[in-house]
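for the writeup, i need someone to sanity check this before i put it in the appendix. the sequnce is what the collaborator sent (i think, or maybe the updated version? ugh). structure was predicted straight from it, no edits. if anything looks off just tell me and ill rerun, i have time this weekend
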Amino acid sequence: MFCIFDSKSNGKALKAGNVKVSMSKHNLSQSEKDFIEQRGLMSEEDGQPRILGRIWALLMVVGAPIGAGGISELLEVSRGSVSTNLKLLDMMEILKKSTQSGSRETFYEIKEQPYSSLVRGYIKRMSSNLEMMEKTISKIENPEAKRRLKDLATFYRLAEENNQQLLKKLEES
C-alpha cells in the first residue's frame, strides 16, 4: 500500500497506490512547491483554472497514484475543486486512473508521455473547427466576413498540419 502523509495530518495517511511513499520521507521541497505554484499560474495564463495546473504539477512531483482526498489535503483546496479539475485533466487524456481492492476511491497519476495525448486532442479540435469553418464559409455572403472566416480556416489548417508533425516527433522520441 502506498501512503502519503501530510505534515499537517498528524500521521494520518492519505491513501494512494501500491508503492510505499510517504510525505514525511518525501516532503515537498521548496523547489517542488514553487514548481506547483508556477505551473498553476501557467495554466491560468493559458485560460485554464489555476488549480488544474497545481494538480498536474503535484501529480508530476509525487509520481505515484494518489486519490482526490490526498490531493485536496496536500494542496489545501476543496475536494470539490479537486474533483472538478481532475475531470478536466481526464478529458485532456493525460491521467492514468486506478482503483484498489477494498477502496471506493479512484487514484490518479500522470500517464507516461502524456504529451502525445494532448497534441492528439488539439489536432482533433483543430480538424473539427476546420470542418465547421469550411461548411460555413460557403454560406456566408458578406465578403469581409467570408475573408475573416477564410483566415480562421487557414489558421486551423496550419495548426492541424504543424501539430501532426509535432505528434510524429513526439511518438518517435
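The chain has six helices and five strands. Helices lie at 30-45, 50-62, 68-75, 79-91, 115-137, 143-172.
thx in advance!!
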